[in-house]
Design goal:
By secondary structure, the protein is an alpha+beta fold. It has six helices and seven strands, in the order H-E-H-H-E-H-E-E-H-E-E-E-H. Helices cover 23% and strands 38% of the residues. A seven-stranded antiparallel β-sheet has the order 1-5-6-7-4-3-2, sandwiched between helices. A hairpin with a 2-residue loop joins strand 3 and strand 4. The longest helix is centred in the last third of the chain and has 10 residues.
Amino acid sequence: MAEHALTQLRAIEWLPVSSPELPASVLDWLLEEDSMTRRFERHCQKVTVEIVREGFISAEEAAPEALLLPPASRYWLREILLCGDGEPWLAARTVLPESTLQGPEQMLQQLGTRPLGRYLFTSSSLSRDFIEPGRIDGLWGRRSLLRLSGKPLLLTELFLPPAPIYRASQAERNP
């Protein structure tokens, strides 16, 4: 299941925020500026992380994400499933150039089963360049270029069928 979700995540078709294909309830989730972990916590008892893959990869393996990041010979990759009450709700892929891991940002390599959002959204130096919504096979996703102390990382997320985002859009279709 994890591999299929991550394959889909890498094939998302990106849409402009103004796309008529984006229902308001879905857009509210996709353009969330705060931590998705925090938002999920409002819909379940416990949010957990299942690590699928973590480690350094080559620039070739980092493509096409590497095109949105500074050139590097290798990139740090973290692929996870974010689960609500044990059920996978989100597949996520974080890619960052090795240069981002200098100084306090070295902690990004040691998150373990801690959600990325718990680390990122406690930092006063966090900024976001963009959020881009997308879709594949009827599932919604988004990608964000974030910066910690000006150092970039690209986060791509795919909302899996059990995720609360689909409850909101279903209610919108079936009032």
